[in-house]
Prior knowledge:
Layout lengths: L1 H13 L20 H4 L3 H4 L35 E2 L20 E2 L13 E5 L5 E3 L1 H4 L5 E8 L16 H5 L2 E10 H8 L7 E6 L9 E2 H6 L2 E6 L2 E2 L9 E3 L12 E7 L14 E2 L5 E2 L8 E6 L11 E10 L5 E7 L7 E2 L1 E2 L9 E9 L4 E9 L8 H8 L12 E4 L5 E4 L3
Parallel strand pairs: 3-12
Antiparallel strand pairs: 1-2, 3-4, 5-6, 6-9, 7-8, 7-12, 9-10, 9-11, 13-14, 15-16, 16-20, 17-18, 17-21, 19-20, 21-22, 22-23
The structure holds ligand MTE and cobalt (II) ion.
Ligand MTE binds next to strand 2.
Amino acid sequence: MGDSARLDRRRLLTAGLAAGGAALATRAIGAGSEPAITEIQDWNRYLGEGVQSRPYGIPSEFEANVVRRDVEWLTASTESSVNFTPLQDLDGIITPNGLCFERHHAGIAEIDPAQQRLMINGLVDTPLVFTMEDLKRFPRENRIYFLECAANSGMEWRGSQLNGCQYTHGMVHCVMYTGVPLKTILQEAGIKTNAKWVMPEGADSSAMTRSIPLDKALDDCLVAFKMNGEALRPEQGYPLRLVVPGWEGNMWVKWLRRLEVGDMPWHQREETAKYTDLLANGKARRFTWVMDVKSVITSPSPQAPVTHGKGPLVISGLAWSGKGRIKRVDVTTDGGRNWKTARIDGPSLPKALHRFYLDIDWDGSDLLLQSRAIDEAGFVQPTKNELRLARGENSIYHNNGIQTWHVKADGAVENVEVS
Ligand code: MTE
Ligand code: CO
């Protein structure tokens, strides 16, 4: 233990990050003084459970607090509601399937894949109906994308409200989808020349319909049946969902049963078919499909306080943009006066979460932590006040403003705003 602590310290020093020579607060040990090593523990004594005791594995009982959570007062019922990804407990860029936030308008539809059909009709040469087996005979692709609900961070428009990144930013997840390009399916049916929109419809009782411009449908959308290698979870639209990379989550229709090709979108036929952003002057932003560049520090954060005292501290977070890759993430520890470039680690993929780190030597004083992401299209994440100036405070959707966490001397963390 002493050796590895020294090694870590050396690494920090060569990286020039532990200015002042901070050491990890590891105790030096004399022989025989570490009971966890020298004394027989319970788990050394028994024969453990055999291989088939957990045919579908679950996390350790010590991770029982790593779960999706909802906010009871947010919605009238749990069926038309949302829960949140526990971002504060996760690392890397992939969200485990059981922790992906859920948003549904009429509860979870439980669909027998043998009964599942996908119909394509409207402005096509040949209307078609596919079974799951049919779909699995087309060439398929594997792609990692984030999905963010347009309402993510919506409760924070008027001021800091919810104490934890799970609640402020947890309507996002990022998994590897396996599916067939929507383009392949559309071409199989043959698109008529006057077609302009593709309108997916869900099989749940809310019969979600959305309108997707044909260009996007032919670009990078997928009809997906797997997430992170296994079948979609029922919560995520089993057995089939639409993937609309970089665009707001409500368009990613789950329990997908029909694709209508048309020349006029649903939202010109029905009032409720699209979200709009209400501005201060009473006008609304109508087409806000792309999710703008955004980031958040996931640790430390209110649900992930600093418990180890001063010295080396790993600041970590997530950044993403519907416009492509993240080019850079800056982190400040003093509320925006000084910024340092964070280290992005792991894959940097377009329209996927990016993981960043800033490794600091914490002197134990109060910190005002913020992260600011810049995407490859050149867009810079705005402050909340910049957003409010541009859009007023009536909106719920598309809040990509910079989040501030106040880390106190005792390690506790609070959601605050700095002007
Ligand atoms: N699709 C159907 N059929 N029904 C729904 O209620 N909710 C949408 C979208 N697709 C919804 C749906 C919304 S608003 C979002 S944000 C995403 O699904 C959430 O996807 P998730 O539950 O996999 O996180
Ligand atoms: Co949504």
